[in-house]
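forwarding from the other thread:

> can someone predict this with pyridoxal-5'-phosphate?

sure thing
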Amino acid sequence: MASHLWLPFTQMAEFDAGERTFVAGAGTTLTDIRGRTVFDAISSVWVTIHGHGHPAIVDAIATQASRLDHATALGASNPVAEELASRLAAVTGLDYAFFASDGASAIEAAMKMSLQYWRHVGEPKRSTFVHLRASYHGDTVAAMSVSDIAVFKREFGAVCFESIVSDDLAMVLARDDVAAVIVEPIVQAAAGMRIVPRTAYAALRSIRPLLIVDEIATGFGRTGTMFAFEQLELAPDLLCVGKGITGGTLALSATLATTRVYDAFLGRTNDLRHFFHGHSYAANPIACAAAIATLDLFVSERTMAHVAELERHLSRALTPLASHPRVREVRRAGLMCGIELLPPPAWDAPVSYGRHVASELYDRGHFTRPIGETIQLVPPLSSKTHELDSFTTELLATISA
Ligand SMILES: Cc1ncc(COP(=O)(O)O)c(C=O)c1O
């Protein structure tokens, strides 16, 4: 049967749906159309937190769907979004939550909030954005404009706007035209789990431009704390979360703001100071219910204590890889690991060595997706130590073959 499906970041001329079609997910595993069950070693690209099909989240979704599936958030509220906003405020230390859908739309909202903020407080000249080297903030136009992965944006120069890229933030922050600095905290996942030098963040502790922290990949426990910015002692003005917020079940993202930012938008309707941005599914009650259930599980399942145990285990399990001749570098921040491979000298196969290794790993029961030559291991927070051991053992066996 001819397929009418077009997949993201996928060469459709080479894609084989018979090889890679998932039909079920349970706990830390996915099952494909051929009946093979594999460990989801990338949490379905950094979204799955407590495992696939967790009964508490499934129940919350079903209950909410039968009560109120959706009602617009444009000029109207719903109790589930209200509760989630206060839960997120409590867990992040910021004050207000503006909901969107995917991560990139939370970034767009944060950037537009920054621009509108500076106009409202009388500094309209502040309209430039600063970002780190090797950054990635999503595929929509503003998010792409502050991203630095050339291959993702090289066709889209016509719509991207100029921004300032620098790891030496102290230098650029002295400028009087900077609206906001946007950073991924500790680790840049899309850059192949690049660990950002801590010194890059030092200049951000007390700055005049707004600080946007993008926790879309790192949020909800993946780096060993609930949010990575806690480890950097940063105080974001705007915080973007997505991916894991619903435990990896439904599209939901949020841009959290401090009172300082929020208050600058207050006035009378006719003043036109309210935030000019919104999406159809903003504050969707079903997604918000999934997010509340996800936060509850962090407490009832003592998830962060388990993450600490997994971290200790991983640092040992990765050691033999670090010294292997086919490994250039092992990078890890909490449960976000990148194992950068060194292709054999005569490697001339039509696919990269990283893709070859990932495909072998699939046959050995582990699903990962390489970033260039970097093999990722970003397991669900509910993973068992033996699953991590199995992944590292099979990876060692593959690159030793
Ligand atoms: C740090 C970061 N920001 C933003 C995004 C974009 O999120 P989404 O794919 O949900 O739009 C991603 C996606 O991988 C990400 O890693």
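The first strand starts at residue 22 and ends at 26. thats all i got for now
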